[in-house]
Amino acid sequence: MTTQDLTLMQATIQKMHWHESRQKVIAQNIANADTPMYTPHDISPLNFKELLESSTSKLSLSASTTGSAGHLATTNAKHLGSSSSSSSSRQVPEKNQKNPYETSPSSNSVILEEQLLKMNENYADHRLTTTIYQKNIDMLKASIRSQ
Length: 147
What we know:
Layout: H1 7-31, H2 48-53, E1 60-64, E2 71-73, H3 112-145
Parallel strand pairs: 1-2
Helix pairs in contact: 1-3
């Protein structure tokens, strides 16, 4: 078994790749701040439910009160269950680029302050994801050493 077989590790790696892609898009927006007729772009958010469903883990996301092998057991009504539950059926709206409130005379709608805020948010989220990944690696190393 490798770390690639663990759903959490796969999820954090995919999240880091998503942050890297978003960083490239934001950097492109900033680089084209003076390009005539340029409109800023952004990528759609990473869907956590799809991420879990696409994992190669043997566990299913369907609810099971029996706790049989291959299914996650929901032993409490407050646990996250299958897609039929009301709490997990909520969809996160896609993050569309806002209509810019200012446009340059050359019809460029890149707002540098907004792009820099997105870049800082993306940096902080990427750092959090890498910290989670590193802590999980450390936890796995500690569990191997204790055996």
